[in-house]
Amino acid sequence: MSTRTSSDLNASSYNMIVFTVGNELVEEAELLKGHAVHIGLAYNELLFTYSMHNSSFHHTQQNQQLKDSEPKAAPVKAEVCEHRMRTKNNSDVEGNAKENDLVSQNILHQKSPSGTWILQLSTGCDSMGSLCLPWFLFFVACLTVSDLSTAENFDLDGGIDQDIFDINEDLGLDLFEGDIKLDGAQDRNSIIGENYRWPQTIPYVLEDSLEINAKGVILNAFERYRLKTCIDFKPWAGEANYISVFKGSGCWSSVGSKNSGKQELSIGENCDRIGTVQHEFLHALGFWHEQSRSDRDDYVRIVWDRILSGKEHNFNTYSDQVSDSLNVPYDYTSVMHYSKTAFQNGTEPTIITRISGFMDVIGQRMDFSESDLTKLSRLYNCSSSLSFMDSCDFELENICGMIQSSEDDDDWKRLSQAPLGPESDHSNMDQCKDFGFFMHFNSGSVNVGAKALLESRILYPKRGFQCLQFYLYNSRKEPDQLNIYIREYSASHVNGSLTLVKEIKDIPIGRWQLYHVTLNVTNKFRVVLEGLRGPGTSLGGLSIDDINLSETRCPHHIWHIRNFTQFISSTNVTLESPPFYSSKGYAFQVTLDLSRETNAGIYFSLISGANDDQLQWPCSWLQATMTLLDQNPDIRRSMSNQRSVTTDPLKTTGNGDYFWDKPSKVGQVAVFPNGTQYRRNTGYGTSAFITYSRLRSRDYIKGDDVYILLTVEDISHLNSTQMQPNPVPTSGGNKELCKDLICENGGICTVQEDKAECRCPSGKDWWYIGEKCEKRGSTRDIIIIATSSTVAVFAVMLIVTLVSVYCTKKKYNKETSSNSTDTVLENVQAF
Fold this sequence. Notes:
This protein is 14% helix and 27% strand. By secondary structure, the protein is α+β, with helices and mostly antiparallel strands.
């Protein structure tokens, strides 16, 4: 087979594509004959068109063999083809990269009025110094043409969407409620009471047995805890109690702190998913499964005859004296809820939600629900989260404490719509008509060079690194600009010193666009947003909405997919991202597989790049994290879906090659729509990334846009053994003395003055007592005893009183009778 040539491109199948190569125009037919296209990274807006006659832009599996040649050519900048051919342009075009700090590479898809598809590609790379070079991957389509070959993907999940309980069942584990480890006589009572809570900062050890990908996922899960709660994690430094995370058989944890030193939590094979890690750590923090609440049957129905024999006890409910729901309503969306298929003996669901719309919601393992966070905050008395700093959707008139600067020419105005766009804010996106607000700089009404400054309230950093996320809308045809400054306060700059952090130019017209900006601030500061009026006479301006600031790391790249709903409504569709570079210079690509019936898959591939000859091969210990963004206005409420994979340099293919070796050595030839060849390694990921029903929920698709955030980082340091100091001696650390003392009812053996004794659990209105916690007491018992005692005393006093009255009366009657006789006799004698 051969590559596609100019003869394949006729008027009936393609519109004309025009590029400039150096200083010359090259039509597509000529380009495909001999020019491999390079990206000039300084240019970040490229447009090209395809006709609908070319069977849309989806990828099908074909075994077409393509040539191995990779010709080189001069850097290229594409001219815009807006359904017309341009004349030859003799102006000089600088093709070399002028910027190395471009944040993202995005492919955008839009259907034109003429029936063609317009794909807009914004190119860029993260900071890589000299490694960030122009290279031949140009016009990569997130949707490749249907007649191109594709490498097969390696599916980590084998085509099966397994939940925690499925994994443990397949391993033959007999755990309480499927993933809870009970020790000795421990039962569900153990979490009730202060003794079983961890401190807000929890020591941990990542044991050497863990897979390195699991270690990276666990650290990412810790970041979610920090962003959304007051719970923090720190490497164990000798504290009395700590969590030891290891690769055991399956995914499981104990519930609550056992106060017995080392407490194990297993993240076994196939458990290295961020939702699974969050789930197991919530157990360790003291949470049981949502469907075991005492009010469970009001919200779901358990179909008992569909449950595996011997597993019925996993569906028991427990009274509110045993498990505290913390006064939070039943939560179908909890990450702690069983799925509808839990412990099923066939194909029918074991749990049926009484509100039918939640059938496909229960059992999610994506992220904390809002109620999960509420319960965790109540249990651990959280008043704020650790790494979250600020969020603003401008719904309130106080605009989140932001201020209009006096050092500018105009102000940002709070609007619900602007005359030339946007027609709605990003938060609500037309869901609520005439509702929702954003901030707008009407640049078309001021002079060229005029500016408007909007400043955040004063913020106080703790970590020294921050990520600013926001959505930006441009409604002017001529280019305006948004500048991001930091006003930092210090002893030497009491009024704040202004530092430019980022200039955002070439803003897409007529749509909301996501941006991330990395900050590195250590002193108190304000974020300053400066809108700058560009040249031209057109009306319109800049709008900004849904600002979030957190002390987290920004994603390295953003893959923006537009008009997304048409793809999930089609069949056999596979979307491919534009090419990206990691910070170490490795080129990669991400594939979103929409060809399966129920689930979308996602895969990470290394591809040939400009730096390959200078890099180490096989590629070692790079973790690629692919995140489907939930576009909630507040990142604390976002439930983004994430999957991570890691490049193991020792992994081999079926024919003995290294899986992550140089793409030119082990990759398959692939071709971009313009005919440029490159090599792509086998994709590595999962076919069970997210179900379509979940994908259509929440704000994964918003304004028909989908964002996939990509981070590829070196985690080789996690191969090192974590330092494990000697534990601090405590009164409860001597297990030998506790060997013969078995505490009942969830009691814990501790050692006091070299003597073993049971520490008994207690709640607000109940407790256990006795040498082995064998006796239960409660406020109700006391009331009954007190009442009974009172009644008994009253009865005794009443009896004594009655007897006393009776005796007194009898004696009185006797004395009266005697006196009466004497008197009569005397009278008789008197007569």
